[in-house]
Amino acid sequence: MIRHLAASNIRPRDTYFRSGEYAIVSCARDNSLLVGRMLEHLRPALLQAIQDVESPTMSPAYRAFFKDAENTAYVSNILANITNGTPIHPPTSVNDGGPIIVCVNSPDVIAGTYPWGERYEAFNDCKNNPTWSSQSVSGTPYVVLCPFFWTSGFGTQRTFPPENECLSVDTRRNRFRADYTGLAGLTMTHYAMWVLLEQIVHIYLIPEQLRRGVAPGDKSDDANELFALSPDKALMSANVYVYYVASVYGHCTTFPTPKV
Questions:
Q1: Which of 57, 73, 114, 260 has its CA 20 to 30 A from that of 141?
Q2: Calpha distance 147→130 (Å, rounded)
Q3: Residue 40 buriedness (CB in 10 A; 0-12 / 13-18 / 19+)
């Protein structure tokens, strides 16, 4: 989920760790170290995806999810920014303006006011939506990890994806096969590392979404709905980037054939 708040109205507190340009704030020591490990695992996966984007011909994964070779430079830039933790916000007390990952386990870790005057408090937001594992706070560098991120098993049981997991394809129907959830792809992407990546992608997409007048946020986690997006809409969907990076990471070669 994405919450919209003015950056100047938010102030995370408590101890923090650093992982490159990323700051990890208000997490218990073991959780901070685990988030740091996720970021360390993400970097080579992202570099592999950048290499795939920049290959002379479109790979099957790129063709399936992004479709248009004209967009390779934009996709590569987004992935490079995530890899490097490139600052896109003013410097803070914990880093130079790159993403800040905040564990929310008590009130007032992140609090502020919406532009229309309503108060926002991240802990209550997580508490009132108990199946939310994470949020991105629009206009800020903050990725919020709700308690459910840890209690759901993401952080402890489904942390790092295997390097050989791919979406199953129904070639006769030219679509991805649904898994036990009834949707396509959720078992592939519901690892903590990919959940974290989705929220970081939001941080880097939101400025361009606002410039284009596109409403931030993804309409679906379903791989078939994301596969059906036009090239322009795919560029603005955080989950498309997650499925793409996960597919390259999994060395996947079989995909439906795009119709565009």
A1: 73
A2: 8
A3: exposed
Determine the average pLDDT of the residues in 195-206: 93
Q: What's the token pair of residue 243?
A: 């499925």
Q: What's the pLDDT tens digit per position in 73-119?
A: 999 999 999 999 999 888 877 778 889 999 988 887 787 776 667 77
DSSP 235: H
Cα dihedral: 93, 96, 97, 99 (round 10): -90
Pairing label, strands 142-145, 134-138: antiparallel
- Residue 138, classed as helix, strand or coil, is strand
Amino acid letter for position 97: G
Q: Which letter, b or e, does each residue of 131-156 get, where b requires 16 or more Cβ atoms within 10 Å of its Cβ?
A: ebbbbbbbbbbbbbbbbbbbebebbe
Residue spans of alpha helices (H) in the chain: 29-53, 60-65, 72-84, 122-128, 147-151, 186-189, 192-212, 223-227, 231-235, 238-249
Q: Is 245 helix (H, G, I), strand (E, B) or coil?
A: helix
DSSP element (H, E) containing 23: strand 22-25
Per this entry, what is the length of the chain?
Answer: 260
pLDDT in tens, 123-134: 888 999 998 899
Q: Taking Cα atoms as reference points, which of 208, 196, 256 lies closest to residue 233?
A: 208
Alpha-carbon span 232 to 119, nearest angstrom: 34
Cβ–Cβ contacts within 10 Å for residue 257, how many?
10
